[in-house]
Write a structure and sequence with these properties.
Blueprint: E1 8-12, H1 19-33, E2 36-42, H2 51-68, E3 74-79, H3 86-94, E4 96-102, H4 106-114, E5 120-123, E6 135-140, H5 146-160, E7 163-168, H6 174-193, E8 198-202, H7 210-220, E9 225-229, H8 236-241, H9 244-251, E10 257-260
Parallel strand pairs: 1-2, 1-4, 2-3, 4-5, 6-7, 6-9, 7-8, 9-10
Antiparallel strand pairs: 5-10
Helix pairs in contact: 5-6
């Protein structure tokens, strides 16, 4: 029986032609953080009879990769889990630290994300080229969980020499300003500790629209990663008109978006 001890970058596969871009992004992230790449297909209950076929497809995917990338640990995983429970199982049992998923299927994975203690990296599976993940945009609002997104930004700064631009929310209330200032000071402290190239500036939008301002900047500056916090609460209105992160990903074009769940304590990357 295979033992899963290495921290892993999980790539959620559909076993079709769009998998290639997802795998290439997974390879890039796994190489940056020096982690194991794990290709996962989570099949439905009514696909159980095709399990051997799926296993063969995964082997077909990994064989050339292992030949071309001998220094990269590569594994495969076949599961048949409820999507909502999948991230917790991957984190607890298989040491997953990030899930790479197709941007076009955000709606399918949004429930999983809301229960996840590991971030989801949504990439445009139809994009041919793979970004360098060298130029990050990070919106910063009044939520205390902003430290989670700052921490993930620091990982890219430390292991990939990425440059980070922080867009700080511009709220008007006294208490809101204090919370935002506290987050900005903490973020700067983290980046300076690891000597990360960064720029922090105050945006023009409040915490409610800060992420969209950061998205606009990321697109106009041709940055290659947007790191955001997901929704802290999910209201009936959100379910009706869609979560803010869904709107961001829908507008993100070729820009990868790393979404961190503020509703759960996130697993940390081990050096």
């Amino acid at each position: 029986m295979t033992e899963f001890k290495e921290q892993k970058i999980i790539v959620l596969l559909s076993l079709n032609s769009t998998d290639n871009t997802l795998i290439l992004n997974g390879i890039k992230i796994a190489s940056i953080f020096r982690k194991e790449l794990c290709l996962l297909y989570n099949y439905s209950k009514n696909e159980k009879k095709k399990r051997e076929k799926f296993k063969a497809q995964l082997i077909e995917y990994t064989s050339p990769l292992k030949n071309e990338l001998p220094g990269l640990l590569i594994s495969t995983l076949l599961l048949s889990e409820n999507r909502t429970d999948l991230p917790e199982k991957l984190a607890d049992e298989f040491e997953a630290i990030m899930i790479v998923a197709p941007a076009s299927k955000f709606s399918i994975h949004s429930k999983s994300l809301s229960e996840s203690a590991i971030p989801f990296l949504f990439v445009n599976e139809n994009r041919v080229s793979v970004p360098d993940y060298k130029n990050l945009i990070l919106p910063l609002d009044l939520r205390k969980e902003s430290s989670e997104s700052a921490l993930w930004g620091s990982y890219f700064g430390r292991f990939n020499n990425s440059k980070i631009v922080v867009v700080v929310a511009n709220d008007k209330g006294k208490e809101e300003k204090q919370l935002i200032t506290k987050n900005a000071v903490l973020t700067k402290k983290i980046f300076m500790k690891f000597n990360i190239d960064h720029k922090i500036f105050k945006g023009t939008k409040s915490s409610l629209r800060n992420t969209f301002e950061a998205l606009d900047l990321a697109l106009s500056s041709k940055s290659d990663l947007l790191v955001i916090l997901g929704s802290s609460t999910i209201t009936p209105l959100d379910l009706l008109i869609g979560l803010p992160e869904r709107k961001v990903i829908k507008k993100s074009a070729d820009l990868p978006v790393l979404v961190i769940n503020p509703r759960r304590d996130n697993y940390m990357l081990c050096d």
